[in-house]
Amino acid sequence: MTHFPRSSGILLHPTSLPGRYGIGDLGEWAYRFVDWLVAHGQSIWQVLPLGPTSYGDSPYQTLSAFAGNPLLISLDKLAGYGWLTAEDLADVPPFPADRVDYGWVIDYHFKKLFLAYERFASGASAEQKSAFAAWCADNAFWLEDFALFIALKDAHGGRAWVEWDEPYALRDEIALAEAREEHKLRIAQHRFIQWQFHAQWLELKHYANERGVRIIGDIPIFVAHDSADVWANPDKFTLDEKGRPTVVAGVPPDYFSPTGQRWGNPLYRWDVMAENGYEWWISRFRQQLTLTDILRIDHFRGFDAYWEIPASEPTAVIGEWKPGPRFALFEAVREALGKLPIIAEDLGIITPEVEQLRDGLGFPGMKVLQFAWSDPKNPFLPHNHVPNCVVYSGTHDNNTTVGWWHEETNDHVRNIIKDYIQCDVYEANWTLIRLGMASVAHTFIAPMQDILSLGKEARMNTPGVQGGNWQWRLQPHDFDNPGKDRLAHFTWLYQRRPDQQERMYGDVAVNNGD
After folding, report:
1. Cβ distance 249 to 306 under 8 Å?
2. Backbone angles phi, psi at 103, to 5 degrees
3. Residue 150, exposed/middle/buried by CB under 10 A (0-12, 13-18, 19+)?
4. pLDDT of 511
5. Which residue among 68, 116, 169, 231 has the highest number of C-beta atoms inside a 10 angstrom radius?
């Protein structure tokens, strides 16, 4: 079966799910959401990167490209194993229900996770301990560096690794051997936490797949400087002798920002990575493709050419384009892993060379309808779509469509949309959802906020703005929002779930040819 049958789905990060522990997790509400998707004809759940977040709480700047976010672990599931008790979970603080208060959540969750490990260590069955040991052995290639990295980070008060005592920062073997012994409890705790994240996630993924729902994951092209990846592999990144980046990643001035975006990630030494056949990247793709069915690569254009900014520059205005690995990387990954179910995030300044790379690899690109309304030649307008693409009403980096309509459009945009659909726009979110559903694009995705007709207060992220991002959460009553029925109807009307049951069309039951 093709990776991309005609289908539709919802963008919702698991942190945005409801739940009593201050943040969405992989417990009851995640399964309810899968059931909600199935009940309304959706066959895709798109998430953001699943890694452990750090300062700023961004899933695009994580402590590891391989590890999972401990905050997503269901505490209720740990209680089900007997590693937490009802009494342990009776002291839940009055977390806000509509947003994630990360500082509060982090403190509470890690106390419970460490307690669960203590119970596991003292009371787990031989079978459970054997399963844990086997998983640790299978994942040692990233897990051992990550667990030691976190233990050392904790021992240094959470500071970035370049600020640690030099023998640890620069990986002196004697110092690291002593650290493994000194911090063996904390290392074991983090191995256990990662085991539980991966077990819970794969159980949820299996539940979704069994019901016809595929998971789209997300790989940021770059990794955070303060990560186990960079600390453990300094030769693969553009660092000085003390481990600090000499040049950093970002994008030049564009739609989102007049000074560009200075992300600050260290850049890859592609020549070094090529020498060992891109082994690190193959491992990264293999790991992520066990967790998801399809991968969206964020900032795909960086594989063709990337914006190199001197680390001393405060903005992204000054920089230069440097060549990426292009086809060589993906040919190596394909040779190792086979056909790659990848979506290329190709937004922003896209050159013919980037299009050649995307199309040569056969990867679908992205069309974002909020960006479509300049003139009839705009490639994001539905009449310019091609079948091999994924169309979105908006993304995690956009305002909600209702927020966009009220806060960011002008008369020009509004008049073009009115002309395009030949009627007044009463509900901008449903106008874009309908246009996306009707597109020839094989896949349509809407952020959950657009199905719920929410405004700017529900925005997930504002690029370039510090603080206040990644916090929005669903409420339990949102599952009953009437938008669900319109979503199901459009999915049937535009044949994005041909196997679904008959639906009512006016007063006539229409059989969908089953």
Report:
1. yes
2. -60, -45
3. buried
4. 40
5. 231
